Amino acid sequence: MSNISIVSKNQCEPIIRDSLLSNCILKFRQFFERHGCSFYLVIGNQRLLINPKESNKINVHELCTVIFTTPEYFIDFCSSFRLMAIAKAFIEGKVAYRGDIFQVVNIVDKLRDKPETALERIRNLFLNYIELIKIAARKTFSSSEHYSLNTRVYELFLDKNMQYTCALFNHASDDLDTAQINKLQLIAESLEFDPGKKHLDIGCGWGGAIRYFADKYSVECTGITNCKMQADYAQASLEQAGIKNCQIVKSDFSDFSKPNYFDSITVVGMLEHVKKSRYNEFFGHIHKSLKPGGKAYIQCITKSPKWIGGDGSRFLQKYVFPGYHIDRIDNIIKGIKKAKLNVESYKDYSHDYALTTRHWLNNLMRNEGLILDSLPQRDFNIFIAYLSMASKLFEDGRGSLYRILLYKPE
Asked: Pairing state of beta strands 262-268 and 198-202?
C-alpha cells in the first residue's frame, strides 16, 4: 500500500472521474460523517479520510481502515447500503479492514440506523417468510455445518473445557478459562450436586461440562447432542481422561427418554435452537425426565427491550445458525410454567456474554495462522463478523442472556 495517496475532500473530483463512483463516495461520506465516524476508506488504490468537521483534532494514526478491494465492489455495496451487504462482502473477501476490529464494528454498526425503504421492507419480509418455511420443515436444529467444522478450530479459540457458551466473569481480570470455570461452579452450586446424583446435559457440545461435573463432583452424567463430531469428540475426551461415570448419546432431545430419572438437568446455549412451537414438547420433556424435586438450569440468549433483529438476525440465519430462535424472557418463563415446572430464579447476565464473545474473538485473531490451517478463509471471516457483531450487540444492551433456575414440584 506504499503507493496509496491521501485525498482530502476538495481533491476528490480530479482523482475520481467516474460520476457513479463519485456519487457513491459522497453518499458514503455524508452518512458516516453524520454519525460522527472517523476512519480511512480505501477503494482500490485510493485512500480517503472520513472525518466530521468537529473531529479535526483526531489522531489519524489511531484510525482504522475499511478497504473495498475494487471500485465495483464499493458501488455494489452502495446500491443497498445495508449491514447485511457489507457483512456479505467481508465474508467473500471483497471488503477487508486494518486496525482495531472493534473500531470497525462501531462504524459498520451505524448501518443498523439506516431505515429500510418500503421496497427493502417487502423484500426482507419475503426472505424471512421463505426462511421460516425452511425452518418449519426441519424437526431438529441444523447444527451439522457450524458445529462440525474441524474441532481444532474450536480448540484454538475456546477455553480448555471447550465451552461454546457464555462464561461468568466474577472479576474484570478473569481470563476465559477462569470465567468458564466460574460458570460451571455456579451451575454445580445451583443444582446442589452430590456424589452419585444423576445429571443430564441437553446439548452437551464437546462434553466439557459433564466431564468437569463428573470429575469434580462425582455425579453420574449423561450428555446428549445431535452432532456426530461433537459426540465422538466428547466420548474420546472422557475415555482419555479415564472418567467412567459419564455417557454420551447422539440424539435429539425428543428421542431420548428416561422418565423420572434425573436429579438435575442443564440446558446451556441450546434453547436457542428450539422453535417456539416446540416449547410444550421441550419443557414437558424436562418435566418428564426430572425426579420430583429435581432441578434444571437453563442459560439462553433472549430478546432485550432494545432488540432490533433485522440484518443481524438475517446474518445469523444465513451464515451461522440456520434455524436458531431467540425469544423474550417472559415467553420462556410462560413456557416453563405451562409445563408445570416452578421457576426459582432468573437473572440477566448480558455483560458476561459481551466479554465472552470478545475473548473468543481475540483468541480467534491471535491464532489466525493456525486456524487457517484447518479452516477456509471464508469461514474464518464468518467467525470474525459473527463474534464482533455479537460483542457489540451485548455491550449495547440490544441482546440479553438469562440464567434460569427451575424445579419440578414434589
From this structure: parallel
Residue 144: burial class (beta carbons within 10 Å; 0-12, 13-18, 19+): middle
pLDDT in tens, 110-140: 987 555 555 555 555 555 555 555 545 444 4
d(CA 328, CA 335): 11
- Write the CA distances from 79 to 12, 25, 30, 40, 95, integer angstroms: 20, 12, 15, 20, 15
HSE of 327 in the Cβ direction (CA atoms, 13 Å)?
A: 20
Cβ atoms within 10 A of the Cβ of 373, count?
A: 11
Rounded Cα gap, residues 112 and 309, in angstroms: 10
Cα dihedral 174→176→182→186 (10° resolution):
130
Which helix H or strand E contains 359, and what residues bound it? helix 350-366
Query: What's the pTM?
Result: 0.87
Q: Which of 7-21, 32-46, 81-95, 180-194 has the lowest mean pLDDT?
A: 7-21
